[in-house]
Amino acid sequence: ATLVFLLLSPSTTTTTSSSSSVAHLAAVGLVSRQYQSGGAGRMAFEEGTGGDSVIVVDNFFTGRKENVAHHAGNPNFEMIRHDVVEPILLEVDQIYHLACPASPVHYKFNPVKTIKTNVVGTLNMLGLAKRVGARFLLTSTSEVYGDPLQHPQVETYWGNVNPIGVRSCYDEGKRTAETLTMDYHRGANLEVRIARIFNTYGPRMCIDDGRVVSNFVAQALRKEPLTVYGDGKQTRSFQYVSDLVEGLMKLMEGEHVGPFNLGNPGEFTMLELAKVVQDTIDPNARIEFRANTADDPHKRKPDITKAKELLGWEPKVALRNGLPLMVQDFRTRIFGDQKQQQP
Ligand code: UDP
Ligand code: UDP
């Protein structure tokens, strides 16, 4: 049985526990898929049928136990509270290294901790992979392209990143994580995979995560104004979480190191996103402009030609189809079971 090992967010001294990262969403999805799918060496993850065992490692800085609570009784599922900045000894065949807060609000909260997670945390996971001969998948980010001067972004683009800015702990951290990954690959012959994840959203995301999709959805449901930062003309491309999970698993099981962009090429300005949220939740939702944050990338859109050709992967869920699935989950969590009575 393959032991799949998922790493989630790093710890910090704060007790902010009501938030969730894309990494966590993805990890939760991965666990679910391991349970369900039968093909490609992945087996039904049920008692008595054999199949993969899954160990989830999280420190619950941005992740929440509730996100995986439904797997708790499964004998092939195990959860460990641990921070990847500290070494750990485990016997595993595959490592999905997703640890790091991914919302700018969270990764700027303790920037030194963020870069330690990306550098020391990644080093520890690579050391673990080397010791047990596991295949190692790094979830990097579209932020390695910085405020890109090429559009859309192709994997061969080296990026335009400010090394001393407030986002550097995350984007330079992930760039270093990619470097470490390739150095272990070349130097220690480790089997590695690198994904560059673009903006992702979906159910189980923390309501107060601070990112734009979760903010707009929660604001519209609570009848608060949608906060658009800057002039709202900056763009992002939004990927539904199940597409990301499928891409990560195809990457892990495939033959190619990458890096691969994993994102939905559908590109929206923040004002266009606000419109989609209005259409989905409340046409009367107001928009309120706020000052933008420093070094905010002006545009972002993945070129996914490489993933299409080499992984046979492309996203299936458009924003207008994915958003309602997230809204349903947010509605339940914000209003509880009385949701049907909410306007
Ligand atoms: N490491 C770990 N678990 C393991 C093996 C290694 O956490 O099962 C950590 C180890 O503590 C070290 C890092 O991974 O800090 C890098 O390990 P490696 O063996 O590559 O380098 P070295 O220990 O020789 O510096
Ligand atoms: N943003 C916004 N309103 C919000 C939160 C974010 O307009 O309430 C903008 C933010 O300035 C950025 C974009 O939305 O241009 C995406 O931000 P997010 O934090 O979701 O992710 P990023 O791509 O910056 O990591």
From TrEMBL:
Its main location: Golgi. Residues 59-324 form the NAD(P)-binding domain. GO terms for biological process: D-xylose metabolic process. It is an enzyme of class 4 (lyase). InterPro entries: NAD(P)-bd_dom (IPR016040), NAD(P)-bd_dom_sf (IPR036291), UXS-like (IPR044516). Its cofactor is NAD(+). Catalyzes the NAD-dependent decarboxylation of UDP-glucuronic acid to UDP-xylose. Necessary for the biosynthesis of the core tetrasaccharide in glycosaminoglycan biosynthesis. This is UDP-glucuronate decarboxylase. It comes from Triticum turgidum subsp. durum.
